[in-house]
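Appendix B. Raw example, untouched.
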Amino acid sequence: MKILLLTTTLVCATAVVANAETFTVTGTSQIVNQVTAMNGGRASFGAYVTGTGETVFAAGKKSTVKFSCMQWSAAPGSNFSSEGVCNNEDSGGAYSILFSCETSDCWGKLVGTSAGYANKTGTASWHTTGDPKQKTSTFSVTGQWN
């Protein structure tokens, strides 16, 4: 029984590793609309952001991703400064990102929603730099589909 369990575990682990796919994305985003309000002496915000990027997968395949996101202030006492969601689409299908950020560094969960991404999950982290006055930024993402 122990051998069967070990064999099953190894086969499943091999299948997961074989399907894992790493990627990077570089691109630009723009704040389309943002609102800010004072809440008990604390500024809270919400923003609608859109953008595009070039995805490069470990095997060399490239695609252009288009995205739209909502981002808002994290709750008081949170370990993060903001959180949000994005809907992304490229030639491989569509997926969502649920994320949290601490200033310009973000971490997120990928959830595939259609075509080649359907029923897949993954993780991504990224760093953003930009000009708040111009409402534009550039970003660099590293991620993996499981």
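End of appendix B.
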